[in-house]
Amino acid sequence: xxxxxxxxxxxxxxxxFLSTKALSQCEDDTNNxxxxxxxxxxxxxxxxxxxxxxxxxxxxxxxxxxxIPALSPxxxxxxxVKAFASGIILATGFMHVLPDSFDMLRxxxxxxxxxxxxxxxxxxxxxxxxxxxxxxxxxxxxYTSKNNAISAEDGDMVVRDQEMAAANGSGGMHFHGHHHxxxxxxxxxxxxxxxxxxxxxxxxxxxxxxxVVIGLGVGASNDVCTIKPLVAALCFHQMFEGMGLxxxxxxxxxxxxxxxxxxFFFSITTPFGIALGIGxxxxxxxxxxxxxxxxxxxNASSAGLLIYMALVDLLAADFMGPKLQGSIKLQIKSYxxxxxxxxxxxxxxxxx
Length: 352
Prior knowledge:
Structural class: mainly alpha
Shape: globular
Order of helices and strands: HHHHHHHHHHHH
Helix content: over 70%
Strand content: under 5%
């Protein structure tokens, strides 16, 4: 009996020791041999510059190459490149952002109740996908209503001009003139173009959120062994994710100023996140419960948004569209591009 009580006591002492050790690891990572603040700072500065440049190149490439006939939105090569970039966005959601959220919200640094007893990552990702559907649908409806109102006003103006011309006794001449002048569609935007614009804006929102979160983690870390491969992976990631977003911006046919604003925000978000992480590195501890919960929930919401956008608004919209439905050969090439993009990004998860 005494021996059993001694074994129980030893077990309790061991568990207490392990718990204390785990909690200390949650708050302090100074024992990590890879921690080097000065080297990490140099890598972060290099990372800010390289990620900024690759982001600008990636998102601007589709906009710059629009003058090349082979890369115009109505050509097959553009469809294949967009499918490749869509595969990268899909893999970003499934293979990078979602697993990170699972790891954070299942961390031993968090209390068992409720974080280990309920799948918050899946729940938040699901809600995020539903919310994205709501925003996608309502934004399209609002744009369509506004567009129809503009079209109706233009139509009324044409009818009034024709009636005035007829009343003045020279209807034939004026009717002919107005027929080739203002049309009922002046100022109106096509339904497909509306969809492209909504998709571009919602996709940019999702990418901006998760880019800031990723940058924050890099900026707050002093782990040289982690930062080196992560910066390389982020350059690849930003380049091709930017190509996907740039293709959507190109199809949306925005004015030059709006294109420039969207390019700017995409390009600056990850470097801004890194700079923010550097500024908060003294107070932000990536293993603290508050940081794990905040970043974990943001990652889950970003994952839901990116997965929805990649599957519904990018891949399904293109593969069910008339261009790909009219060519089995182009479909096969596009499927191969999706698998190549998703596969390449999945391999990057090993280093990221």
